[in-house]
């Protein structure tokens, strides 16, 4: 069994699939191990290819960082993975804020995401995963093993036994006869999500700082079905907006699907979600807080979706850790390394960006799965035995992984912080007058100053992959100080103006009256 150029990717989620494709493009033989059955044969969601009802799936907003990473995978001569994903996505150019003002009913307010028509893209997570799985299974160097759960991994197999077939030894629990019981591999990449086994294994061998924080809010998914007009299905809301119903401590959002439905998510504290346990309570809550959305969803559908949940939402937590690797043998990416709150729409974008960040470092150190084809600084020796080449590559890979942990960490901490902050922005600040003034000033400065001098935080995070998350956060801090000074100065100027006007009025009051 060839283990010298073998990479084991744990988890066939979107990050695992992109990792496998990226490593295969660098000459590795890759196996993906996934504990679940093949989702392409099992589930049918609102955004899936089968397009029927049944289990609902979250929509994701994919933006520039995710698309940049996806574009590195070529599908055909003139198409890459980003093109494929975009052909299944609905562009969203703005937020649509649905306010509820006492006595004034429901109002809608559109807030553009960018000055030049930039958009984020709504795509079903299920469909996105299916598309990546299709590419992975079509690749000759990638094999997929479903129903194959990683139980444990020994990252010191060769240290313990020099005759071992590989550096790492993976043990699986597999069923339906689809996966191996164990496998040796040169390299393990953990893309196994928030409860990563690869991460916890590494943490037993080397100190890993780890923090998981839950917030009081959880989420519930709902659906806005297509509207039928003259016998044809149309969108019930403008599909090119991300719809938000901000209500301070909770909010509802909706993103369009290709089948003209919307996937809607309620984010709320347990104190609210916990009360949604009867038909009456559910309908009363929606009628009071989201009357326009309730009309579009339909009473029966809302009750049928929420009643079985009996006041239990899906929890939301973020994970921070450091480092993200063990020697040149194992590394973990995506939610395994940095699950974050979903409020900046960056969790997966960041996970895809991880893959690009890591493979750039692998290239920089000239490591390839096919040793004869070395790139970068790795000295290629034609005809060198793979086994010897891998001994030479292993320290180079360790260097690449060490740099990955060090250089990627500030970005991951920054985006996790920004994702948490954005919860407050989406649920309440979007309607505050100060936020709207700040946003207008941001727009004005972006428009009037020379290109690149002033970029709003949202644009840096969402549309500017060339600016790292940490750099974006730093630039925003500087910009905020300037904006605050401008606002204070304008306030002072306004107050001085009012004062002078007052004095003038007092002085001339006899003439006026
Ligand atoms: P996962 O998707 O969790 O995949 C991990 C895979 O590993 C799974 O298939 C799992 O079955 C498998 N696995 C786990 N353990 C094992 C094991 N022991 N053996 C074998 N296989 C295993 N991100 C965005 O970019 N934009 C958004 O708009 C956005 N919206 C979101 C909205 C919500 C409500 C939520 C909850 C998240 C959102 N995200 C968004 C975040 C995004 O969903 C995640 O960041 C992304 O799915 C992470 O991908 P992943 O491949 O790292 O992990």
Automatic annotation (TrEMBL):
Q: Which cofactor does it need?
A: FAD
Q: Which GO terms describe its biological process?
A: 'de novo' NAD+ biosynthetic process from L-tryptophan; anthranilate metabolic process; kynurenine metabolic process; L-tryptophan catabolic process; quinolinate biosynthetic process
Question: What EC number(s) does the entry state?
Answer: 1.14.13.9
- Please name the top-level EC class of this enzyme: oxidoreductase
Q: In which pathway does it act?
A: Cofactor biosynthesis; NAD(+) biosynthesis; quinolinate from L-kynurenine: step 1/3
The record ties this protein, via InterPro entries, to:
FAD-bd, FAD/NAD-bd_sf, Kynurenine_monooxygenase
Pfam annotation, one family: FAD_binding_3
Q: Which UniProt keywords apply?
A: FAD, Flavoprotein, Membrane, Mitochondrion, Mitochondrion outer membrane, Monooxygenase, NADP, Oxidoreductase, Pyridine nucleotide biosynthesis
* Compartments it resides in: Mitochondrion outer membrane
Question: According to its UniProt record, which reaction does this protein catalyse?
Answer: L-kynurenine + NADPH + O2 + H(+) = 3-hydroxy-L-kynurenine + NADP(+) + H2O
The cross-references to SUPFAM superfamilies, in alphabetical order and at most eight, read: FAD/NAD(P)-binding domain
User: What range(s) does the FAD-binding domain occupy?
Assistant: 7-358
Sequence similarity = Belongs to the aromatic-ring hydroxylase family. KMO subfamily.
- Free-text function comment from the UniProt entry: Catalyzes the hydroxylation of L-kynurenine (L-Kyn) to form 3-hydroxy-L-kynurenine (L-3OHKyn). Required for synthesis of quinolinic acid.
Q: What is this protein called?
A: Kynurenine 3-monooxygenase
Q: Which organism is it from?
A: Pseudomicrostroma glucosiphilum
Q: What is the lineage of its organism?
A: Eukaryota, Fungi, Dikarya, Basidiomycota, Ustilaginomycotina
Q: Report the gene name.
A: BNA4
